[in-house]
Structures are given as structure tokens and as C-alpha cells.
């Protein structure tokens, strides 16, 4: 079984990296999530099908509330990424689709456009993977990215994921089908 700390514990003692703080998403994060999605819509909607449904600030609040409920129910652990130097909201990284019986989950992430190109997602994802394997007792973490999304594929490559195959037409997104490269890490894989 996966071991999940409470949101309150993680908010009191967030995951820290050299440049980042990772805190469980809380309902109070809704306005910042809205501003990030709204300001990065053109960039995000190309790769993330949920962006088209994120149409007003209330959608961000509902998302933040759902994140808290998902954590409390053991379904997913999603973190706000904040830059340590000024606490600015940079994006979200999470462990989705937690399957306790198999000790597995899926890595998911996005950054606001102003935070891209600086290695923040690699840093945040590496910290979340360490947390998954060392603290949660995960055995396997899967990740998928569109085969024509070089930025996301580069993050996956830097994290040491192993390629498992192509999921053809895996997602309808922004008016087109996306093929996904599927990758995984096992806790014993070198990283």
C-alpha cells in the first residue's frame, strides 16, 4: 500500500528543493491557478485537454477543492510549485491515479508560460519522484506526453524514465488527436 501523509502535514513541511517549494493544493490556491491558466491558455491548451473547460475563476476553485478531496481520499497528490525566492506560483506537479494495491501512480505537470525554460519542472518532478519512491513507497510511476511535445519529452528524459511504447490517438486535445509516448520508472531503476 502507498503511504500518504496528510495535506496538513505537507503544508506545514512542504517539499523543498534548491529553488522551489511544493505544497499540497488548497482551495485558497484557486485564484493563482486561474491567473496562471488564463495567462498561459494558448500554450497550455495545445497539450492539456482540460484547459478548454477552465473557463472562469470558479473553475479553478472547484479544481483546487477537488485536489484536496482527491488527496484526502488517496486518489491523487497534487502540489503547487512556488519559487522559494519570492513565493511566486509557477505551476502544478502531481502524482495522479494512485493505485494502492500496485503501489503505482502517474506523474502529471504543467507550468505557467513565464516559468518555462529554466529547468523548474525537472527540479519539481525530480523532488516529487523522490517523495513517491522514498516516502510513499511507490513501486512504479508512469508518465505520458504527446509525441510532438519536445519540452515535456525533454523533462521525461532528464528524469530517467524508460520508454514503454506509443499510445496512438490517446487524447483529443485542441482539435486534434495526440499520440502519447508512454514511459515509466520502477523504484529500483537507476536515475
Automatic annotation (TrEMBL):
What cellular component terms from Gene Ontology apply here?
A: cytoplasm
Question: Which UniProt keywords are listed?
Answer: Transferase
* Leader peptide range in chain numbering: none
Supply the SUPFAM superfamilies for this chain. Acyl-CoA N-acyltransferases (Nat) (SSF55729)
Q: Which domain of life is it from?
A: Bacteria
InterPro entries xrefs: Acyl_CoA_acyltransferase (IPR016181), GNAT_dom (IPR000182), Ribosomal_N-acetyltransferase (IPR051908)
**Does the keyword Repeat belong to this entry?**
no
Q: Name one GO molecular function term.
A: protein N-terminal-serine acetyltransferase activity
Q: So where does this one cross the membrane? A: none
Residue ranges of every copy of the N-acetyltransferase domain listed in the record: 37-179
Q: Which PANTHER family match?
A: RIBOSOMAL-PROTEIN-SERINE ACETYLTRANSFERASE
Q: Know the name of this protein?
A: Ribosomal-protein-L7p-serine acetyltransferase
Q: What is the lineage of its organism?
A: Bacteria, Pseudomonadati, Myxococcota, Polyangia, Polyangiales
Amino acid at each position: 500500500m502507498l503511504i500518504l501523509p496528510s495535506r496538513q502535514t505537507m503544508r506545514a513541511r512542504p517539499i523543498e528543493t534548491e529553488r522551489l517549494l511544493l505544497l499540497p493544493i488548497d482551495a485558497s490556491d484557486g485564484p493563482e491557478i486561474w491567473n496562471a491558466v488564463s495567462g498561459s491558455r494558448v500554450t497550455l491548451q495545445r497539450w492539456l485537454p482540460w484547459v478548454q473547460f477552465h473557463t472562469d475563476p470558479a473553475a479553478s476553485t472547484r479544481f483546487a477543492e477537488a485536489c484536496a478531496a482527491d488527496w484526502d481520499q488517496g486518489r491523487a497528490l497534487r502540489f503547487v510549485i512556488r519559487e522559494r525566492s519570492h513565493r511566486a506560483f509557477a505551476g502544478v506537479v502531481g502524482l495522479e491515479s494512485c493505485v494502492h494495491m500496485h503501489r503505482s501512480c502517474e506523474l502529471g505537470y504543467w507550468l505557467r508560460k513565464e516559468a518555462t525554460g529554466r529547468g523548474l519542472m525537472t527540479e519539481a518532478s525530480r523532488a516529487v519522484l523522490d517523495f513517491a519512491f522514498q516516502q510513499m513507497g511507490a513501486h512504479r510511476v508512469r508518465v505520458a506526453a504527446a509525441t510532438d511535445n519536445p519540452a515535456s519529452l525533454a523533462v521525461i528524459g532528464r528524469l530517467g524514465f524508460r520508454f514503454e511504447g506509443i499510445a496512438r490517438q490517446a487524447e483529443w486535445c485542441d482539435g486534434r488527436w495526440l499520440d502519447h509516448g508512454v514511459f515509466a520508472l520502477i523504484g529500483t531503476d537507476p536515475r
